[in-house]
């Protein structure tokens, strides 16, 4: 492009010499190339996004603040708000940060990126989990307060607002994966995500509540009682019907999940949600709630 610009701005004779400056074409072209290279080098040095910068002082600050933040979040989300436990956790976090800082100060250079810099990604991941946990707890608390004020049960909140919020990320991810050419992976994620939530999430929370409710070793671990409402039974029945219909409809359709099957699933979910809302508003089955 630079060479074409030179041809447009100057006229050259038959010997390849500029008639205005009386300089050969080769010298003009080399000078322009050197100027462009110098400008690119200056822009690279001034723009931090063009190079992988290493700031040891910033990492040192993160070594102290990130564990402290995670400790405070962990204590704030715990049931036992004992201030002595918080002080002990902060002290342990401070000792660990000092040891990590000494390793960073002794084995790294202020100007050279260390070989094991990728390990900081795990620290950032832990801080992200702490942020997500905090925001999720606040959102759940706010929505539950709204449900108490409006008289909405926990089952309806879980089936509507919480379900949409929990599945929105999966919806975007599955659609993106399917458009990239991996429909089997997206379909597997549709079943794997809820299965992980049911088996792993409910399993861990059930174990935690069972151990937490146990008083003494002689009594043992008491079972955690779950209130089975009418809306929950309707949702469970709808889920079973959906799986059975998929087991029949997909083979009959030549193992192709067509648009017709997709619309059928959407209609089935919408119908069950509307029925749950009608049951909740009308109060049907509230007297028949039982505990499991």
TrEMBL record:
One of its GO terms (biological process) is intracellular calcium ion homeostasis. One of its GO terms (molecular function) is monoatomic cation transmembrane transporter activity. Keywords: Membrane, Transmembrane, Transmembrane helix, Transport. This is BgtA-21064. It is a multi-pass membrane protein. Residues 122-275 form the Sodium/calcium exchanger membrane region domain. The lineage of its organism: Eukaryota, Fungi, Dikarya, Ascomycota, Pezizomycotina. Gene3D superfamilies: NCX, central ion-binding region. It comes from Blumeria graminis f. sp. tritici 96224.
């Amino acid at each position: 492009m630079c060479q074409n610009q030179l041809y447009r701005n100057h006229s050259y004779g038959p010997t390849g010499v500029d008639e205005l400056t009386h300089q050969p074409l080769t010298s003009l072209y080399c000078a322009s190339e050197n100027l462009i290279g110098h400008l690119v080098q200056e822009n690279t040095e001034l723009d931090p996004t063009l190079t992988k910068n290493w700031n040891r002082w910033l990492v040192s600050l993160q070594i102290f603040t990130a564990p402290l933040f995670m400790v405070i979040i962990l204590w704030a989300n715990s049931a036992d708000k004992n201030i002595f436990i918080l002080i002990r956790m902060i002290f342990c976090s401070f000792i660990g940060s000092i040891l990590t800082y000494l390793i960073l100060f002794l084995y790294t250079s202020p100007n050279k990126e260390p070989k094991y810099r990728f390990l900081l990604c795990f620290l950032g991941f832990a801080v992200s989990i702490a942020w997500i946990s905090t925001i999720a707890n606040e959102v759940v608390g706010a929505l539950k307060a709204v449900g108490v004020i409006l008289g909405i049960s926990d089952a309806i909140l879980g089936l509507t607002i919480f379900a949409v919020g929990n599945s929105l990320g999966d919806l975007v991810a599955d659609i993106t994966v399917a458009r990239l050419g991996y429909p089997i992976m997206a379909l597997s994620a549709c079943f794997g995500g809820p299965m992980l939530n049911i088996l792993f999430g409910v399993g861990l929370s059930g174990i935690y509540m069972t151990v937490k409710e146990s008083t003494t070793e002689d009594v043992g671990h008491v079972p955690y009682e779950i209130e089975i409402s009418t809306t929950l039974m309707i949702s469970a029945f709808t889920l079973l019907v959906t799986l059975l219909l998929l087991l029949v409809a997909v083979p009959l359709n030549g193992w192709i999940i067509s648009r017709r099957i997709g619309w059928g699933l959407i209609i089935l979910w919408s119908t069950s949600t509307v029925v749950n809302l009608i049951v909740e508003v009308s109060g049907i089955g509230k007297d028949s709630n039982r505990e499991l």
